[in-house]
Amino acid sequence: MGNIENFDGIKIYINGREHLPPHFHCYYAEFHALIEISNLNIIAGKMPKRQLNKIINWAKDKQTELKDIFVELNPKFKI
């Protein structure tokens, strides 16, 4: 599991040996959600609205970087 970022009690990870669509994991307290990189929608799990807004705002400027990290950790997917 590759820790990408930590802020305001939120942890962001991108894992190796993953599945499509390209996504990242976010954790906050007892919450865990998978966020699709291309559209920043939750594809699994739950996250409180306030923390989700922080995550989305953080990820908006980092989508290309997040895609690159996903492919680096999961080279079988060329997106």
Helix fraction bin = 25-40%
Structural class: alpha+beta
Strand order of the largest sheet: 1-2-3-4-5
The overall strand count is 5
N/C terminus separation: 20 Å
- Percentage beta strand: 35-45%
Note down, in words, how this protein is organized:
This protein is α+β, with helices and mostly antiparallel strands. The chain has one domain (2-73). The chain has two helices and five strands. The model has no long low-confidence stretch (mean pLDDT 94).
What's this model, at a glance?
With 79 residues, the chain is α+β, with helices and mostly antiparallel strands.
Please tag this protein with its features.
single chain; 79 residues; alpha+beta; 5-stranded antiparallel beta sheet
Topology:
Elements: E1 2-7, E2 10-14, E3 23-28, E4 31-36, E5 42-46, H1 49-60, H2 63-73
